[in-house]
Design goal:
Elements lengths: L1 E6 L2 H11 L5 E6 L2 H4 L3 E2 L7 H11 L3 E4 L2 H5 L2 H7 L3 E3 L3 H8 L1 H10 L7 E4 L2 H11 L2 E5 L8 E3 L3 H12 L7 E5 L5 E10 L2 E3 L4 E2 L2 E3 L3 E4 L4 E4 L6 H21 L4 E12 L2 E8 L7 H7 L4 H9 L15 E4 L15
Helix pairs in contact: 1-11, 3-5, 6-7, 8-9
The chain binds adenosine monophosphate (AMP) and glycine.
Glycine (GLY) binds next to loops.
Length: 340
Amino acid sequence: MKVLVLGSGAREHALVWRLSQGSGVEVICAPGNPGIEAIARCERLDPTDRAAVVRLVKHEGVSLVVVGPEAPLVAGVADACRAIGVDVFGPSARAAAIEGSKAFAKEIMFAAMVPTARSETFTDAALAARRALEWGPVVVKADGLAAGKGVVVADSGAEAAEACRALGATPAGARLVLEERLVGPELSVIALCDGKRHALLAPAQDHKRIFEGDRGPNTGGMGAYAPANLLTDAQLEAIGREVVAPVLNELGRRGTPFVGALYAGLMLTDEGPRVLEFNARLGDPETQPLLMQLAEPLAPLLQACARGELDRGALQQRPGASVAVCWPAAGTRPPPSSET
Ligand code: AMP
Ligand code: GLY
């Protein structure tokens, strides 16, 4: 079986590495990176270019496409590949809106009665800023994709109002979501989904702040480990039942079934787990330790999801734990003092 992995990050490296271990599996990656090139053939193309991806799939006789990042999903690459009859692990553009639009994600959560923070959506940034002053400490979110820079956790109404004005002036901020500020440890729970059914990967935790000692601004994640034993097995099952399953039902009911990795970013509050966000893809860097821990062959699992044939709830896990540490290129320097 020939598998095409789209993307160029460490997450895609982990996917290619794990997929290549399957017997009878040949993996190619587009565009890949120099690390991936050491273990698989890479083809240079823009993974958001639907026509280029379709050409490669046809030319290579690919039977399964695995989409890593969100940009190709939002650009409709999964739809374009499905339209030519290829199995795809990754949701349609319409289902991927659960990540691409925070307002849409809140609408789905509300309709599916998923536990989440109270929120209000605005199309007028000035109105949002006035409301933020009334709310006080509140979280301001730009609706669209903003490369991890679209969320401000404000300590005061004034800071929140300023965030409304700043985010409202960005392309992602045409709509703004104000959200109740929750407190508690965060956890990433990722479900492999076939449109109707799902299987949960181990819970993982990523570390968001850029500098040592949990200092500095948030990033997409400087490292991650799995399993993160912050929940009992019963609590994890409840997340499958009360978060993942209702969202799959709701998206299916709307005619946009979700096939791929549904990533629930949760906060474990005193009142129970609450969803902060959904991603329509595997997390990065969570995927790296998660795939170290997974004890099952990956290609048949992703293919079963792509075909709507996922037949198991629990995935086999290796004993122990895995840790991923990011080794980023030099860039922002840490503050000299202990300021955060
Ligand atoms: P998001 O992109 O929605 O996951 O937000 C990015 C980060 O902002 C999360 O990982 C949290 O650390 C924080 N955050 C988001 N929503 C809330 C909330 N309602 N309460 C407190 N912190 C939040
Ligand atoms: N590590 C967070 C993310 O993948 O969005």
